[in-house]
Design a protein that fits this description.
The protein is an alpha+beta fold and 156 residues long. The chain has three helices and five strands. It has one domain: 60s Ribosomal Protein L30, Chain: A.
């Protein structure tokens, strides 16, 4: 049964942002066979504020989960670019990696990364269920609260 991913995004009220040009020496995605590796995406996008700071410090859990969701939206924008705008080519999400800028003692890192994981499952259904890593870190680029990367399988 074919998915209509664009319609699902619209029903969720999601508008994919313009993919930003990297500011360092990397690309937004790399292809290896049928896999797309999406570079880490921070919690900044058109229409969403940039969430900076330490989760468990200046940033509470609910705000951090929303920031992780923004990272997921950025991942979807890069993925759409990688598959020429046709997200229905996505066979499945293979893996997400979540990195959370944490204050000392904050241990609910997996709950933060659920913001991105839940989004991917909302968009792709069972094909969005993935393996995952959730890691608390001391710092992230530009002071971001959350960064998420991903691997997807595409149909040819």
């Amino acid at each position: 049964m074919a998915r209509d991913t664009e319609a699902r995004l619209q029903s969720l009220g999601i508008r994919l942002p313009v993919v930003r040009t990297p500011t360092a020496n990397y690309v937004q995605y790399a292809r290896a066979g049928g896999l797309i590796f999406v570079a880490g995406q921070i919690c900044q996008a058109e229409g969403h504020g940039f969430c900076m700071g330490k989760v468990g410090g200046s940033i509470d859990l609910a705000t951090a989960q929303k920031a992780a969701r923004v990272c997921g939206i950025n991942i979807l924008a890069v993925l759409a670019s990688a598959c020429d705008g046709d997200l229905d080519r996505v066979v499945r999400c293979v893996r997400l990696g979540g990195f959370v800028n944490v204050a000392p003692g904050f241990t609910d890192v997996p709950l933060v990364v659920n913001g991105a994981s839940d989004l991917i499952v909302e968009v792709f259904g069972d094909a969005g269920r993935h393996a995952r890593t959730a890691v608390g870190v001391a710092e992230l680029p530009r002071g971001a609260a959350v960064e998420v990367d991903a691997i997807f399988e595409l149909a040819s």
